[in-house]
Amino acid sequence: MIERRDVFQAIADPTRRIIIIKLSQGPLNITQIGEDLDISKQAIAKHIKILKECGMIVMNQKGREQVCEAQLTQLDEVTDWVTQSRKLWNQRFEKLDQFLASAKK
User: What stretch or stretches form a coiled coil here (predicted)?
Assistant: First the structure.
């Protein structure tokens, strides 16, 4: 069975979040992505593969190099989810506040 990847898997890992932040500044190759990370090129390639499967990055050939480019519009899905969750929890807390206020009387 093929595992479905989504933006939430992309941002679930701290290393992938760092890679996304780096790529938000502009396209980079794998060597440039790994400059400040204390992990192997193989591990970086694995994270890049997952980010690509999640639709967070695209790979472009520039000469002999593979260059990664961020696709940040995918983060809109996270923003929408957070907004909806915030509304739901605010409603629940308002109901709880009302219940507690009526219980004090």
Answer: none
Q: Which of 53, 60, 45, 47 is nearest to 20 (CA)?
A: 47
- Burial of residue 29, with CB atoms counted within 10 A of its CB: 0-12 exposed, 13-18 middle, 19 or more buried: middle
What helix, strand, coil percent values describe the chain, rounded to 5?
A: 65, 15, 25
0.70 surpassed by pTM: yes
Give dist(CA 20, CA 71) in Å, integer: 9
Residue ranges in the chain modelled with pLDDT below 70: 1-4
Q: What is the pLDDT of residue 29?
A: 92
Domains and CATH numbers, the chain: 7-104 (1.10.10.10)
Q: What is the CA radius of gyration of the chain?
A: 20
